[in-house]
Task: structure prediction
Amino acid sequence: MNWRKPVIYSLLYMTPHPIPRCLRYMRKWERASKADLDALVENKRCNLLYRAWLDVPYYRQILQQCGVVVDGNVDLSRFAEIPVLTRQIIKTQGAELESRQKRGRGAFVNHSGGSSGEPVTFLQDRFYNAWNIANTMYFKTFGGQEAGELELRLWGSQRDLLEGSESAVVRLRNWLYNRVEINAFTMTRENMARYVEQINSYRPSWIEAYAQPMAELARFIKQQGISVHSPRGVLTSAGTLYPEMRSLIEEVFGCRVFNRYGGREAGGIACSCGEQPGLHVSVWNTYVEILDEKLTPVPAGQVGKVYVTTLNNYTMPLIRYDVGDMAIWQDTPCSCGRTTPVLANVVGRNTEVFRTRDGRIIPAELFIHFIGVVFNAGYIEKFQVIQRAYEKILIRVVLNDRAKFETFKERIVALVRSVMGSGCAVEFEFVDDIKPLANGKFLYTVCEVN
Result:
């Protein structure tokens, strides 16, 4: 019996966050007619634009200039005239993008992981957080997962690398949610063998994992010819899940793979339902546009850049925000019966794993997380990590504060050597810019080792 589920929901009802109500809202609207969903999104966009005009200095000026909000009246027909929001604008505008009501909303700071090569700092609040948590729980219901069922997470843990253990709060939360965590940042052959033993011992109902490390674990299991417990499903995120990766994971673990797309700036944007690879967009959370170079919507089936508007973050609205990804709209409804729009594919976030001479696997997410977030106090504009040889790493950086960078430089070197080997040579190259590929992808890790 899953006694944790009623306990978890009872505790959620006792918090100021309306998580259960948000979850019921999502279930109510997931199969609504297109006309009703369009009306829902229109209403949420109007509310966001009005609050942004009323409380956010940057948008007060922008929305008036565009004629989107005039004397408090919102004209959605002019939405496409709002200039896109970039990471550079967030950095230069700073407090001008923050609501004057942020204190009353319980604002907190968050950071992007730098998956576009350009980390950024932003604000979110209690209201946004409630919707985001509910949305995460909603995605898990696609495969029938309920709160409190035994879940194993192959996730990135900075505490394991920097401090050696997780905090008491994290351990308590994991106990309540019936969650076991193993570290995706330490993918040695010995650790992967131990991870398989843990999976077979715990026999989790679900596995949630970084896409690339999960594929590497599946590859290791297949190569070693060992048996592994088959959960009801695997939920991947934090990286592009390529078709061959999905096929390998499903083959090895004998279950369906559900793929989640999102980021720290916008939370969970979309998730596959198990019926097909396409990802259902959470229209109550995020308004998604896929545009060409002229900022014109691309037709279904064609690749364009992804721009998102966060519909529930009034503390620091991200309106037409360039997330740095490329994606494709699907032109047919999903056979699952849900009527929310579907992304046929997300083709951004090209990651490459690094490998050591003794066969250890280092996921790109490690470098993104530590260089982009943990060891970045706002001085790194862009970065790219290149493995030139087994014991040679080159880190290209675009800096806006060389003095601050020097105070963290040795910590970055130590981190790289802790995972690549103590004898690894770490070099830095200071450049004015790091260009993306012609297709718009940014390679934040490049492995030149054959």
User: Anything to note?
Assistant: The chain has two domains: 1-145+232-349, 354-447.
